[in-house]
Design brief:
mainly alpha; Growth Hormone, Chain: A
């Protein structure tokens, strides 16, 4: 492996760690709801983040294909730092609102771009087939960071929510410093010679021409919109069973299992097949989660995190399939188109889910979400059946 590839894998690994070392992660919904005054308004901050990301998604994706991957990561890190500061200030709902806008902008810079940076760094050295391996390796650091920060954040939040929020700013500063260490891939064929509108049209046309890519896009939208809302709301469910200081323990277990899933995702996907892994993992998570919610008790927060293992494996499998279908010229833009739709759906679903959660118990709201997730199982089943028929 060349120096540039080795450096980018190493720095992306550490960048991912610092970006997701969010001490407030396990209590975010509790903090936002406390400042805002309700679950609906608390979840609306996540919606604002996703809507903001959606607004900037295409411009930043196209920008990445024009100015390069490294600069795009740096701009994203700057926005993430600003988001952390406004969340920590948290004087009232509008401070959170501004923080959500910056967080969404940061997300839009990362989506599509960071995966493209890794893929092109490997392609420069004819190692595209190793993408799933290195994607799992670098992405697993998100989960390592979340595991450690969830445990620490849960404990610190017992004494002070503001302390948790301000301490979460430091890792984002470190992430910005690491971003400056990244090396731009030397490949030139990813730079589009067309104008921006033509570039965007070509990206959309690629989705229209590829049936499997369209199905993967739809399932990704549903999976993200519903699944991420459920993940962000889980702390409210756990708070009905455990004291606030202990919520981070469940969060840590969640991310430990996810880390193992990301680390083994490449091996399992290649051994059993990418679509088979996606289908079986999805159907297992649905039935297991519903059973745990229906039989909720004090040990449930210790057992439920196991579903994160299949989440990690499935994330590697899905990302690898996307990269195989994306074209080199529009790689970041196509990734941004996918994220755009997912963020818009999340923004809408989180608001509706929050209003539902204000009217019924958190456990009941979670069950409703799990039932809706069977739409994902169905699409994966169709993709898997089509693959077997070939």
């Amino acid at each position: 492996m060349s120096i540039s590839v080795h450096s980018n894998v190493k720095f992306l690994t550490w960048f991912n760690f610092f970006v997701d070392f969010t001490l407030y992660g396990p209590i975010a919904i509790l903090y936002f709801s406390k400042v805002a005054g309700s679950y609906a308004l608390g979840l609306s901050i996540f919606s604002i983040e996703m809507i903001s990301s959606s607004i900037f998604e295409l411009p930043t994706g196209v920008l990445s294909d024009y100015i390069g991957r490294r600069k795009t990561v740096i701009y994203g890190a700057m926005c993430a730092l600003m988001a952390g500061i406004f969340y920590a200030l948290g004087v009232n709902y509008w401070y959170l609102f501004v923080g959500g806008i910056f967080a969404g902008l940061a997300r839009s810079f990362y989506s599509g771009n960071n995966a493209a940076l890794l893929h092109e760094s490997l392609r420069e050295n004819n190692q595209e087939e190793e993408y799933s391996k290195y994607s799992g390796q670098t992405s697993s650091m998100f989960q390592v960071a979340l595991a450690v920060s969830a445990l620490l954040g849960g404990i610190i939040s017992y004494w002070s929510f503001p302390a948790v929020m301000w301490l979460s700013v430091l890792p984002r500063l470190l992430g910005l410093l690491v971003a400056f260490k990244l090396i731009e891939p030397k490949l030139l064929d990813n730079k589009s010679e067309n104008n921006i509108l033509t570039h965007l049209k070509e990206s959309v046309a690629n989705f229209k021409r590829n049936r499997e890519l369209r199905s993967l896009n739809i399932v990704s939208i549903l999976n993200y919109g519903i699944g991420e809302t459920m993940h962000q709301f889980k702390a409210a469910f756990i708070a009905t069973l455990w004291p606030v200081w202990a919520i981070g323990i469940s969060g840590t277990l969640t991310h430990v299992w996810a880390t193992i899933g990301f680390r083994t995702g490449s091996y399992l996907s290649k051994k059993f097949g990418f679509l088979k892994v996606l289908f079986l993992g999805s159907i297992f998570n649905r039935f297991f989660s519903i059973f745990m919610l229906l039989t909720a008790n004090v040990i449930s927060p210790l057992i439920m995190p196991f579903t994160s293992f299949t989440y990690g494996v499935s994330s590697v499998a899905q990302d690898t399939l996307f990269q195989k279908h994306f074209t080199n010229r529009e790689r970041a833009t196509m990734g941004s188109l996918n994220s755009l739709a997912g963020n818009l759906f999340f923004g809408l679903f989180a608001l509706v889910f929050g209003m539902l959660a204000d009217k019924i118990r958190p456990t009941q709201a979670m069950i409703v979400g799990e039932v809706l997730m069977f739409s994902v199982v169905y699409i994966y089943w169709r993709l898997y059946r089509t693959e077997k028929a070939r």
